[in-house]
Amino acid sequence: MIDWITATVPYVHYEPVQGGAVMGVDEYGEVTWKRDKFVECEGSYSAHAVVQTHYPSDHAYSLCKRSGVYRWLRVSGNPSKFLQGHNLFGSENLPALAPLFFRAVCGAAGLRVDEVTFERWQAGDFRLDRVDVAYMLDVGDRFGVRDTLAALAHQATVVNRGRGHIQSGTVSWGKRSSRRAVIKFYDKEAEILAGKRHQLPENIPHRADLLAYAVGKVRAEVELHSVLLEAAGLRDGSAWHADTASLRWSQVMESLNITGQVPLTPQRMKDLPSHLRGTYALWESGRDVRAHLARPTYYRHRKQLLAVGIDIAQPFRDDYAPKVVSLQKVIQPTPAAPPRWAYGTDLLAA
pTM of the prediction? Predict the structure, then answer.
């Protein structure tokens, strides 16, 4: 599915679209620089995207200001969330999805899109600066998610990048890279339960079904930025086809090197730093860890243990049996399909 789009789109308008401005002022009160702010638009179920007038160059800026005719918009946001209220699954067909997203954002900003402009977008007349592609990997249950992430953190490498970076339970490669694809794996269920920014709206249809679908799923995301898109000949919307996103995701996933069979088991005390072993022992014994630790210590230890796939906020399960799995069979370009009930609804319209 397409999880993020940042694009420049042709759109003729006669007043600049901006949500105010930020500026720098020197000690004499003179403005030394000024930047227009995006207009934030609300989509379905309070999801947000942003839009503003775009100037490809200083010359274009001067020309637009003199003529009073503005020709481009810059649109950025998560099309899946904006159109349907969640991004657990959605369309991977960027040529069909992007024009719908652009029109919806313009509508939310009070901008009318005529048929000629919309047809230009449908023909791929737009420039892409960022595209994120994401799928869900079904690893069985919450314990499978925890152990898969831990194994990825310690056993998976990418050529010329080594092992992944671990932060707050997310395993990633190339986090700040613009020249290479950024790869991220994390627990999707934990994300949508974590805070307001990612929670499912209370009034979204099929909310209970969506929450159930997230259980046992590892999110696998690929970020493609402008330099990489340019090198691949994918800056122009017209270069994309219905299956381009899934093919690029698969190619990036194939760059992961995962060696051999990886034991997945919660019995990892010997591998933990000494200051975490007591906390792990409390959790494994079935006690309420929060009741035995000071609040700052609890959250610090939970964050550190999440990095190795152990969540002390979840109860330890006595009947959890150690197992050995081949991660090559889990991390492969065959993502989990959307639930059967979602087909035939507007959730998979594009």
Answer: 0.77
